[in-house]
Design a protein that fits this description.
alpha/beta; 2 domains; disordered N terminus; Rossmann fold
Amino acid sequence: MTLQQDAPALDGGAIETETAGGAGRTPTAAERVLQRLDWHVVRRLDGLLQGDYRSLLFGHGLDFANLREYQPEDDIRYIDWNVTARLDTPHVRQYHEDRDITAWFLLDMSPSVDFGTADADRAKRTVLIDFVATLARLLTRHGNRVGAVLYGDRIERTIPAGGSRLQVLRLINDLLESPRLRRSGVTDLGALMDAGSRTIRRRSLVFVISDFISTPGWEAALNRLSRRHEVIAIRLTDPREHDLPDVGPLIMEDAETGEQLYVDTRDKAFRQRFRDAATRRDEALRTSFMRAGVEAVEMSTDEDLVRSIVRLAGSRKRRRGHA
């Protein structure tokens, strides 16, 4: 349940620069988005990460390298149970790192991602588009390939994996053109993850990007996906999904179903119940991600994208330090 609010159209923040099509051609919406991100996000990341994208981009390889004792924060998927049973001490397998990878984005484009209150131009959909475009740009710039599966109220589109700047522009364009659904019934993230399992044949780095507002049961699909691929869950959030402001009576509307509820936000007890329910949901999601062996990162509509990506890189670097 979220506050009723329509997200503004994303115009890409045009920048007056020459594009590949020549100085006399008007940049497309996708080109404007990429120009904006190159100037305001990618350049800053180059400075902050000092060109070291390995901890952010590269996952575990496929070739076995060594065994060592399990340490806290190790990925439980890499426990060697036969060795653990023989030695009576948990051991994990280590692998040689892949140099070239394929990354896939499984994208939730259901109505709830059009919610955002922190800034007029920062709905969760905007955060999703900017994050995907930035990661795709960084990956393809280092010779890797990216693909995507888009889900609205069903699987809308599959973008085959490819490299180069043109692939990034195609991905951005398809995201910008993805319809904004006013109602979709209820979201089934299990269908998105199962589509990813069917589509992605080779072991890949998979980003599941969603607010994880869904019907129950998607956890089993996430488990199946994580058994074959390295999965990172990017959870999109908004501050008002955790704390309601004291703004008096208002109508809350479920972005997925359109169901409405009249509430009085002056009631401190109601605001506390709302906060407690959000906390319980956060804890349930963390438990689901942990059980699936999936790394999870939150991205809020009120957080700077560069800071979010640097935080993701730091989390992966610490995790890899134990791998």
